[in-house]
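Quick log. Single chain, no ligands specified.
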Amino acid sequence: MELRQLRYFVTVAEELNFGRAAERLRIAGPSLSQQIKALERDLKVTLFDRDRRSVALTSAGAALLPDARALIAQADELRRRAKGMAVSDPVRIGCVNWCPTDWAERAAGVAELRVDTWVMPSHTQAARVADGSLDLAICWVQNADLDALSLDARLLGVDRLYALDAGTDEAPVEAADTVVLVDADGASWSSWNRYGEQFAAATGARVMRTDDGGVTGPTFFEHVRRLRRPVLNNPKGQDVSLPRGLVRRPVIHPSPLWTWSLVWRRGEDNPAVHAVIDEFTGGTNDFGLTDPTVWLPADDPHKPGDQSGGQHHDSAEDQRGPEPVVQ
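-> predicted structure:
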C-alpha cells in the first residue's frame, strides 16, 4: 500500500467518477483504475462498486475512508515539518481572473496557501509581489515588467484569444481584419492596452479607443454589435457565456496567445514559496507556444526564440494610428 494510492482512493470517493478523479489528479484514467485495484488487492477488500454508469463506495470503502484521510493529513503535516514549513507564514498568492481550479490541493503537503481576495489587474498584482504584499501572483507580464520590478516568472497557462462578431459567421478571421478595443483608463487596463496595441502593430489590426470600460463585459458586447466587425476578445471574458447574436471566431495568420505567468521576487529565500512554485509549474508543457502560426508580443518572457507567426505591416495605411473613441 502506497500513500499515493490512498490519495487516489480519497479522490475517487469524493468524485464517485473515475474520469473526473483522473482529471483532478492529472493522471490517465486506466492508471487510476489499476492503482485502485492494486490497493484493493493489498487491503483484501473491495472499495467501490462500479459498473458502466455509476461508482459507489462499498461498506468497507466507507468505513476506511476516514482513516485514509487521516493518514494523508498526517503525511502532509510530516512533510511540512520535514521542510521546516510547519510554523511558516502562509504563502500569499493573488490572481487576475485565471487560476488553477485545484491549487489548494496542489499546494497541500508543501505549504499553507492563502489566496488573496483582491482580484486586480496584472500590472497591479505584479507590483504587489514586488512590494511584498504578495509572495506570488498569476498575471500577464513582459520582460520589461520583470526587470523593472525585479521579479522572476514561469509559465503557468495560456489562453488562445478569439474574436467576437455579430451574426452567425463562425469562420476563422484574419488577424489583420480584427479590431482591438483599448481603454482610456490605463490604471485598470494597462496590460491589455499594451498587448492590444502590440498585436495591432504586428498584424495590421485596427486599434479603437473607448472610455467607458467597454473592453469586456456587457458594454463590450454592445460595441461588437455596433461595430459589426470581429473584435479581439479580452482574456477576462475568455469563458463567459455569450448573449444571443454574437459568435466566437478563431483568429488566424497569426493566432494570438495570452500567457499567464507565476511571478515572484528575485532573490526570494522562503523555501515554502519555491515549493509552491515547483508544485504549480512542474510538468507544464509549452502550451503550443512553439507553433509557428501563433503570435506572442516580442517582449513576452515565454516567447521561444525567433517566432515567425506574426507578420509586420509597414505600409503607410498600417501606420495610421488609433481611431477615435468608440461612442
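The mean pLDDT is 86.
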